[in-house]
Structures are given as C-alpha cells and as structure tokens.
Amino acid sequence: MKQFVILSVLLVFSLPVGFSIAGCKGTNPNNYCNKSGYGYGLKTNQVAAINLPGNTTGISLAFGQTGQLQSPTATNCNGGAESVASYTYGSTNLNLVDVSATGALCGGTWNRHSPGGIPDYTICTAPTAAAIAAGCSGTTAAICVVQMTASADGVTSNTVPVWVHPSVTTIQLSVASPTTGDPGYQGCLSQNQTSQLDAVAYVSTNANTPFCAPAGNTYGVPDCSVNLGHFTYTPVSAAIATIDQYGVATAHQPGSTAVTAAIANVSSTAGNLYTCPPASIRLMIPSTIPSTENGTVGTVTPGTSVPLTTTVLDTQGNQITGLGLDYSSTNPLEISVSSSGAVSTTYPQTAAITAVCNPPTCNPSLITQIGQLGNGLPIASNSVRLTSTGRTSTYLWMSSPQSDFFEAVDLTTGTIGSPIKLPYIPNSMVLDPTGTNLYFGNYRELMQFNAGTNSLSKEDTTVPGVVLAVSPDSSTVVIGDQVRQVIYLYTVSSGAHTTIGGVATRAAFSPDGKTLYVTGPNALYVHNTNTGWSVYPNLPTQTGAGCNLNNNDYTSTTTPFTPFCSPDVAVTIPSEGVFLTGPDLTSAYSFCPNTTTTPAVYYPGALAPGTVLPATDHITATTDRVHILGANPTTLSDIYLGNADTPGVPVENTPGDPTGTCIRPTPNTSAGLFFQTTALPAQTLPVTAASIDQVVASPDSSIAFVTYTAPVGTASPLLPAYTISSTFGEAGTLSTVKLSGTATAPLAGAFSPDNTTFFVGTAGDNLVHFIDVPSLTETKTINPGLVDPTGAPVPVQFLATKPRPTT
Fold first, then answer.
1. What is the pLDDT of residue 397?
2. What is the pLDDT of residue 554?
3. What are the residues whose beta carbons fall under 8 Å from the beta carbon of 724, sequence distance 6 or more?
4. Domains in the chain, ordered, with CATH?
C-alpha cells in the first residue's frame, strides 16, 4: 500500500513537468522541416539549399587570368531566403582554378602567405605544365574543366563549371539557319525570325603561336576549334537585332550589324548579322478613293486626306512592318505627305508620292558591308499619282537677269502692280517649295524676299552667286559662286553655310531631300545628308554647251550672259539615280556603293553596257517615273525607263527603277545596277534655236514645253509642245503653239499649279503669254513692265508660281 501511495504522488508531480516540456518552443513540430509531428531534424529557419549562379553558362578563364564567382543565395526548406555570415568556396582542382574566401577565381593558383606584406589573393600564377597534364587528361587541346562550389552551415551548393585554357586570340561568329538550325548560315533573317548564335574561339600557347599548330605540340591535339565555355553576344545595333543571354538572336529591322562575342574577358567583333532588306515597297491608294492602274493613279478633291497603304516585302518574301520610310511628294505645297504616308491635298495639282527606305535610318549597314545581301542600299517604292481636281487662281512672279525689278501678279484680279525694286540685278530666282520665300542670286549677295508680302527680308553677302535649288523642305538653299568657284549649302533658319570647291551650273534634290546632285562642266558633286560630299571629276560626257558662267553682264557682246547654262541634271522619280546632259550623249548614274574607293560611297554609271543615249543640253524627269525628256537646238529626245507598269509586274521592275545586282564598280565604268532605257527616235524641233533654255514637263506627266533662245537677228515665235503618249514605249506628238504679236522666241516658262495654263516669257515683245494647255492655244498676254537700268524694256526669263486660295 505504501508503495502505491508513493507511486501516485510521483505521478501527480510528474504531470506538470511533462506538460511544461511539451509546451516549449524548441519542441514544436511546426518549427521543423519534418512535418510528421516529431520535433527533430532541420529547422525551418536553417539553411536547406545554396544556389551558386552560373551553372548553366559557366565561367571561362585563360591561364593566369582572374575572375569572380557570382554571389550565392541560401534558402530554407520552405523556399524562403536565409542569411549566411560567410561562404566557403571549393574547387575540384586547386592547381588549375584556385578560389579565395570571397569567391575570387584564379586560372591557376593564388598567392597565399606571401612575404614582404604582399596581400594574399592578389597574384594569380598560371598552372604548370605538369598540373595541366595531370588535370586535363583526356580533354581536347588542354581545355580543363574544374567544378566550383559554395558551402555554408553544412550545406553545399550546385556546381559551376570553370573552363581554364590558353589565352584566346580570335573569336569567330557562327549563325544557325532560322529554318533548319544548321550552323554556318550565310543568309539573312526576316523580321522576328530567330537564330541560335555560336562562336568558335581560337587559343594560343603564347602571343605569337596559335595553339593549333604545329601538330603534336606540348598540349596534345592540334585543334583550334575548342569549347571554352559560354559566350555572351552584343549587337552593335539593337534596332537591327537583339540577342538574349543564351545567344538567341531576334531580327527586328532590315540592315546589318556587327556582333561582338565575349569569353574569358576577351571581347572582339566576331562577325556580322544580316536581317533581310526590303525587296519591294508597294504603295496603293485606299479602296475608298477612285483609282486606276492597279490602285496607283487616283483623283481626289482639295481638302481630302488619303491614307496610303504601304506593303513591304523582304528578300525572303516576308512582310516587314515598322520601317522608317521617307515619304515625299513632287509638289509638297499642293499635295503633301506625312512621315506615316498620309496624303493631304490642299490645292488643285498633280503629284507623285513615293517612299524610300534610305540608309542609315532604314536598312543601315557598316560601310564595309554595304551591298552585302542588299543591306545598306536604298530601296524605292512605286509611285502613286494623285490629282487634286479643280481650277485655282495663281500667284505669278516674274523677273529678268537684265533688270533690278521683279513683278508679282495675283491672277485672281489680274491687276499688274508696280514693279518691286531689288537691291541688285538678279542672276537667278527660285521660289521655295512651301511658297514662303523667293531667293534672288547675285555675285554680291543673296537676296531673300517674303513671298507673302513681296518685301525684302534679308540680304546675305556671305553667299554670293547663282541660286540653283531649294530643298523640298525649304530649309536649304544651294548657291553656285561661279566667280570664286565655290558651292554653298545655305541653312535658311540660321544663315550658316558649308562649302565645297567647284563650278556648278545646275542642281537638283532627290524628292526626299536627302541627296543633292550638282553638276558643272568639270564634275558631278553629290551631297548626301548621311555621307557628306562626293566629287566625281572628268566624267566622259560632261561638258557645257558654251555660255558665260562668270557673271550676269548682259551687256557683253562677246560672251553674253545666259541663266540657262548646261550641263543640266534631272533626278529620277523616286530618286534611284540621276541623268546628266552632254553634247555627245546623255549619261546616267545610280547609287551603288564601292567601299574600296575614295570616297567610299560611289555613284557609278547606270546604263547597261552598250547603251548610248542621245545628246541633250537640258533635260527633265516626268513625275510618272517613265520618261527622261531632253532637247538640244535641233532635236527633242524621249528616253523611256524600265518596263511597263502593268498588273503582275514586280515593283522593282516598274518604270524608273534600276535593275540588276549592285556590284562594286571601278570609277567611270558601268556597274551591274542599271536603268532599262529605251531612247525613241529623236524628233526634229520645228523651230530655229541658238540654244535650249528649258525642258518643262507638266506635273501630271501629260505634256512638256521647250523654251529656247533664237539666233541674233532671227524670229522664231513658236513654242514647241510635246504631248506625251499614254501608251508605254510609244512616241509622243511634237507640235508648236503660235505666239502672238511681235514675240521672237519663248525664253522661259512655268506651269500653273492646276496644270491648265503655261506661262511663257518671250523675247521681242517682252511680254508673258498665257497658253491654255488642254487646247494648246494662247489665251492672253500681260506686260510685266520690267526695264533695265537705262529704262529699256527687257524680257522675263525667271518665272515662279504658287496657288492662291479663292475663299
């Protein structure tokens, strides 16, 4: 009984103790990773795993090179982050890859316990030949692979491979086919296509001896192509393509870009990546607008907005979107086009709208790779021709190189006002495309008048000479100082200018304004906004027709001044090339870079071998991209460009486009890229002309007029009119318009903005005659009242027009 009482007492006293132990935090099963209800094992606040980054890519080190492991991260059994005071790093071969307490790597061995106060882990010594032979047994070309780890709290991380090897000398890029995945792809990637990049690294035993030679070298297998670990790739232009961490390239925009590959702290340009350039750019009028010729010719009313449809196909036949195209209009004041291809019509007029993929903003390339797979070359669209209907009133400006006055007429009222005084007698007059400013040239200064008020707004003595052209955006004026033999590019907004030496007679901008062609008796000068000036002297056909270039001394009896000197220049629509006049033959030049010459961008001959075009003194290009029209004192020539613009014909073979392959030509020889030209039999001009002044084509490409100077003492009151055939390859009809009164020759002319009237200034009567274009009859004349300094009447030789709103 006594024993039972003692046992009962012990049991009573023991219960609170047991409950107290069970209730301690250290024995709560929820604090352990083992959730089976037992309070033992790894706790939830202890390190369960360590991740050492780099296991998928590894690290590459040359012998004696240093590197750094990425910082490890520790997690508990629930995946939460755990802090670690310090890690211990391990290497499977410390003789090949040594590691410090902070994860600093050495492709060999670190200095430890160095005398003289040298800090530990600051000197990396390359492994010995014996260490390499022992540690790299069975590997190719002495490329050793060592595994690294990080440990803490009894837990060891995953392994990270480190390739240790001789130093890298060369890296070469390899691109996989986007369709088959085969390496060594030599083609281009279409937009959004991907390709796996790879690289081959070449190593050496020293700075002068490649590792792969000679055979049987110290390190064994004579193989230059070795696996050194993971490469990282960086494109020079991320707009062309991007490359992810695994070496997968994605194409974005057309062009070519260099790609750098990095490994073992060595980065080099390993190769080039090509994305497919446009093969065709197709513009079409929307179905809501009545159109013909496969949606490329349409009629709209003023005030209409026309969003053009642009379809771009690359050289693989895949569509490209998001291109930075340059849209342009041949008559931007009346029919303009935005940067997105939306056309706005303001006044009655006809204009050709085109789009150009222009490097480097579109399809760029390194200069050494221009032309490779088509990258770095401009690609032009077909032309869309829009006619904004109706008739409109016209502002008409008239001046003469013999008078220090000019006249402005508002044809709404028809009233001839008082002539406006100029500071000096002009040798040229050009209205900018926006109709804002009139520019008069003189060998003393440039004179700028406000076209709205006809008031003098600026005189600039720093840019004397002949005003040759104004850029399509009206920002730049081209001036040729034939006395000092200087060509100026004058910036209107700032008054600043740049120069190049040369004698210039004519100039023309490409419709997009990015390329300027200037011709003279000695050279062709080409200025591109991206490449600057290029000069091509002594072209085989380029000589002048003989006129006084040096001043505007109209009183000279030996070398009388004429403002219509040749050679002349005409830019094709939409600007794939340029045609130049010549007394023996007309020549053509096209964009086709040659990176082996100076300058690097070369504009070679663009006529097919054996092609000879007729001689001309002045030429013009029609806006339908089909004709180059030229004339000399005896004949008129019609040069057809390209193939018929019919449905089913590829865009690149439509009129105006050069065909063939862009090869690398030698100077003054025909290149592979050429115009398909057909010169119709020259037609005899039915007039007596001493020299040709102009060939003026209508904006709708339906008719052209020829103005000229008659021999001294003769009268030729006939205006030649060439009605262009609407049938491709068929000759047009040459006729004349009889000028009334005492007119002796039509000197200069200009079309009204709505194409219905041709204004022509004449010698003999010093009047301006109005020619009704549809009927080819004269309807009226006006007297501008221009006089020379002695008060004698003089003829109009400069005309400019712009539309006038009637509401």
1. 96
2. 62
3. 622, 627, 629, 638, 697, 701, 702, 703, 704, 732
4. 57-74+85-165 (2.60.40.1080), 167-275 (2.60.40.1080), 278-388 (2.60.40.1080), 503-684 (no CATH), 689-724+733-807 (2.130.10.10)
